[in-house]
Amino acid sequence: MPILNVERSEADGGEVELEVTEGAPLPSWGAGAALSVVGTPRPRVEGPEKVTGRARYAYDIRLPGQL
Fold first, then answer.
1. What is the pLDDT of residue 51?
2. Full-model pTM
């Protein structure tokens, strides 16, 4: 399954433009792969945006040609 890369830029007037490109698929993990992130606590970096109402959700994004 290909990976989709999304690049965000702001146009004149502050409107956000998104460009989606297709990237190479990620390699599979081996049977003995050491997973250093799974099962460990991670900081929630989006917390301040959610609390202040500045967080952007999928509903907030409008792509060209979208109904």
1. 92
2. 0.32
